[in-house]
Amino acid sequence: MKKSRGRTGRKRRRKHLQGFMDGVNCSHKLEYIKLKKWLKDRGFEDSNLRPAEFWDTGRGLMTTKALQVRDLIISLPEKCLLTTDTVLSSCLGEYIMKWKPPVSPLIALCTFLIAEKHAGEKSLWKPYLDVLPKTYTCPVCLEHDVVSLLPEPLQKKAQEQRTTVHELYMSSRAFFSSLQPLFAENTGTVFNYSALEWAWCTVNTRTIYMKHSQRECFSREPDVYALAPYLDLLNHSPNVQVKAAFNEQTRSYEIWTNSQCKKYEEVFICYGPHDNQRLLLEYGFVAVDNPHSSVYVSSDILLRYFPPLDKQRNAKLSILKDHDFLENLTFGWDGPSWRLLTALKLLSLGADEFTCWRRTLLGDVISDRNEQQTLNITAKICHFLIEETQHVLLQISQLKRNKENLKKHLALVEALCLEDLKILQKSAEILCSLNMAT
């Protein structure tokens, strides 16, 4: 009897450990103990969520009980949220109130984060600040060598992001200087560029949507940000559905699940139906097998496969531009998009078919020759992008060997390229089948 009971005990223990294999519970870590106590003091009831480290997503939250559809995942009281109300009720409030022209809600939050981080032990928000990432992987934080490896449309957006943050810093320096009476050190060293970059990334990657009424002391930009300690440890998955909103009755921000989750598994929420380029741009990560992901085709690549001597080339381009068919041309998991095929059909129109361009935009079949040429060119573009992506992956593997300090950032671009490659290879198979069918 003893023997079998021991075996059952081992089995049970093994099963218990199995639950933790995907994620290692981190509740015992001092920073999380302090955060939970800080939240409890502000009215947060301990939920079934535990901080954990997961091998594929990094830091996240695991559930200690199985979750069913329509279960409440988390309810965070208003007192725990960091909003512009928090900023205005701090010592920064009077400075913001009298500053002209008014600062944006975004700058108010960034200023508060920088000031509180600088205050260190004296900050009332220290337990939250201690669990925030020290660094981020949004394109604004990436080295130039890494950004140049990104797909062309994303490179452009990364540059725009960098410009946005730089302009924000330059336009806020006078306001930062006005805060000098609050600091023993020079505000120029407290509110330096890297401090603003960190604060901007914190707000951009971690805030939840919460609408506040317009106030005179802020500029006209919408005041819709709230930082949500503990709740912001929940990671994104494109395959789950949740309902999230501020509950006016309970005065808490609540998230309800529309998906099931097993005991000891990571609990996910969905940030929205974003493709991987958007996820990397806004949040600094890539989702594996993201159903919303696609590979973008630039107009330069499009034109590479059409004879420059085509007399109607410029007219065709004008039509595509006027009807917004030069942007958002993509390959997805189900092959080339309708927009991409339509643009290529129009560019493939023969001189005798050009008058039918309106029908092309409506999706009509113009001729067998036009259909076949469109498929051939689409396949060529797909293969070109496959080769280009493989070339970038080769560059990344070489850089990883030579540049130890860029490994983390390079791994991110590598993940994006590998996902793009999967989509392009799937599209190539679909095009091959279509070609055989015609």
UniProtKB/TrEMBL annotation:
InterPro entries xrefs: Rubisco_LSMT_subst-bd, Rubisco_LSMT_subst-bd_sf, SET_dom, SET_dom_sf, SET_MeTrfase, SETD3_SETD6_MTase, SETD4_SET
What's the EC number here?
2.1.1.364
Primary localization: cytoplasm
UniProt source species: Nyctiprogne leucopyga
GO MF entries: histone H3K4 monomethyltransferase activity
Which GO BP terms apply? inflammatory response; methylation
Q: What is this protein called?
A: SET domain-containing protein 4
The answer on whether this UniProt entry bears the keyword Nucleus reads yes
The record's SUPFAM superfamilies line, in alphabetical order, gives: SET domain
Entry's family note? Belongs to the class V-like SAM-binding methyltransferase superfamily. SETD4 family.
One Pfam family name is: Rubis-subs-bind
Q: How does it assemble?
A: Forms a ternary complex with TBK1 and ZNF268; the interaction with TBK1 is ZNF268-dependent and leads to TBK1 monomethylation.
Q: Which GO terms describe its cellular component?
A: cytosol; nucleus
Question: What enzyme category does the UniProt record give?
Answer: transferase
Its subcellular locations are: Cytoplasm, Cytosol; Nucleus
Q: Which UniProt keywords apply?
A: Cytoplasm, Inflammatory response, Methyltransferase, Nucleus, S-adenosyl-L-methionine, Transferase
Name the catalysed reactions. L-lysyl(4)-[histone H3] + S-adenosyl-L-methionine = N(6)-methyl-L-lysyl(4)-[histone H3] + S-adenosyl-L-homocysteine + H(+); N(6),N(6)-dimethyl-L-lysyl(20)-[histone H4] + S-adenosyl-L-methionine = N(6),N(6),N(6)-trimethyl-L-lysyl(20)-[histone H4] + S-adenosyl-L-homocysteine + H(+); N(6)-methyl-L-lysyl(4)-[histone H3] + S-adenosyl-L-methionine = N(6),N(6)-dimethyl-L-lysyl(4)-[histone H3] + S-adenosyl-L-homocysteine + H(+); L-lysyl(20)-[histone H4] + S-adenosyl-L-methionine = N(6)-methyl-L-lysyl(20)-[histone H4] + S-adenosyl-L-homocysteine + H(+)
Please list the residue ranges annotated as the SET domain: 42-272
